[in-house]
Amino acid sequence: MADILLSHCNHLFYDRKQVRKMQPYPPLQTLLAAAVLRRQGFDVALFDSTLESPEEGFRQAIEKHRPRLVALCEDNFNFLTKMCLTRNRELAFFMAAEAGARGVPVTVNSSDATDHVREYLDAGVNYVVVGEVEQTLAELAGALLGDSGTLAEQVAGLAFRDPDSGMVRRTGPRALLTNLDHLPFAAWDLIEVSRYRAAWIEAHGYFALNMVSGRGCPYRCNWCAKPIYGQSYHVRSPRRVAEEMRSIKTAFSPDRIWFADDIFALSARWTREFADAVEQLDARIPFQMQSRCDLMTRGTVSALRRAGCAEVWMGAESGSQQVLNAMDKEIRVTDIYQACDNLRAHEIRACLFLQFGYPGETWEDIEQTIRMVREIRPHDIGVSVAYPLPGTRFYAAVESQLGAKKNWADSDDLAMMFRGTYESRFYRALRDALHLELTLRDNGSASGRAGIDRLWRRVEQMRDTCVTNNPTVLWTCS
How many CB atoms lie within 10 A of CB 287? Predict the structure, then answer.
């Protein structure tokens, strides 16, 4: 028997786009929560649904371990979790029902559960951990399973139903961790690293694992949801991150690391000290990361290269300054160009996240983004459309336009859920054309060029036929 069975709902094979990409990462936040629970003296088990059949696998895990508590702890460092995909929600509801049928209490922590507390409680979840998970989950486990003398209803950071009235109750908010160095390393022994290695090697010929250096983001883009960490940013010490990097290098020998932070290398000084520590500890592993283009100064990029950085993803969003201003992005288009130049000068691959369909975006704005991609020639791009999530000023501005569909089913959905300038099928065609042009940019074959031309003609045709009626004009979201 285990005291606590941890699981999560990010099943790779329910997401067509992620199947095509085949870049599965272990549930890092879940493994961190498991390590904290172990430190508190609890016996923990894990059902990792990433590569397993989730329904049957969870049934087998709960029968095998016969836990006293089930904790659905989503990987809050994974952008898929932050997107609140409906297929993940359905799987969480299934797991809650399976545990409840066996009389096992269930707690859940995720962006989606934080946004939809009532729905999760209605589905059989007993406690929703609101905000950062580790301390709240450990105290809740102590109240339910231990002899802490604390009632669950006294644990800060929870939402639950009052047993008498049935009303949803919330305890006081949980203060965020400020010294992340006090956290243990993730409980890597709970997963089958060999299965992840095999999937990566088969698809790409190399193996990657994930890490984080910090939590949160202090910037205020008005479409960015922050239900877990709010408007905060905390980072581990540079040496502590380098020590974990060395530990992972020694234990698993990955070919690459993905730093899953919302924003990496925010401080130039921290980045220099991190590079120093990596060199001193012989911890260097080629890594990928995401950050802001205005942080990719020459000095910071030089330090990143020393530390092993091979690829940087930046939230460029748009080549139109008007759109960037409307998003409260606080960058200039020229910053995007300069960042890419700085990265290339240090032989680091520059990649861009792009977002189309923001309220008020015109065809002229889209053309500016296309031109930017062609001029910069990034190593890769990620294309999305504006996605309203609860808690953002953007969501508040378009909420009245939202219908029954308020979340994507999976990460390939790319559905417009409010009145943008164009219909969803236009943006899907635009995505396909941009990706193909980038993929075949060095392919001089006539067939490759003809394929690109066909897609762009389709985009132009749809530009004239997929215009919505009364598109939202919203340049005052902030």
Answer: 24
In the chain, the amino acid numbered 359 is P
In this structure, are residues 297 and 265 in contact, taking their beta carbons and an 8 Å threshold? no
57-98 pLDDT per residue, tens: 999 999 999 999 999 999 999 988 888 899 999 999 999 999
CA distances from 161 to 72, 153, 169, 227 (A): 18, 10, 6, 20
What distance lies between CA 309 and its chain's CA centroid?
Answer: 20
DSSP letter at 146 equals S
Asked if residues 414 and 427 have their Cβ atoms less than 8 Å apart, the reply is yes
Strand duo 158-161 + 168-170: pairing? antiparallel
Q: In which residue ranges of the chain is pLDDT below 70?
A: 442-444, 470, 472-478
Residue type, 196: Y
Q: Which residues pair with 129 in a beta bridge?
A: 158
Question: What is the rounded CA–CA span in Å between residue 468 and residue 460?
Answer: 15
In sequence order, which residues have a C-beta less than 8 Å from that of residue 392 and are 6 or more positions away? 222, 223, 224, 225
Could you tell me if residue 292 is left (phi over 0), alpha (psi between -120 and 50 degrees) or otherwise beta?
A: beta
Q: Is residue 263 a contact partner of residue 233, using CB atoms and an 8 Å limit?
A: yes
Where is 160: in which H helix or E strand?
strand 158-161
Structure tokens at 351: 């990649």
Reported in sequence order, the residue ranges of 217-324 that DSSP labels E, i.e. its strands, are: 233-235, 256-259, 287-291, 309-317
Segment 123-181, tens digit of pLDDT: 999 999 999 999 999 999 999 998 778 899 999 999 999 988 999 999 999 999 999 99
List, for residues 292-316, the tens digit of each pLDDT value: 999 999 999 999 999 999 999 999 9
pLDDT at residue 443 in the model = 67
Tokens representing residue 322 in the block: 């008007």
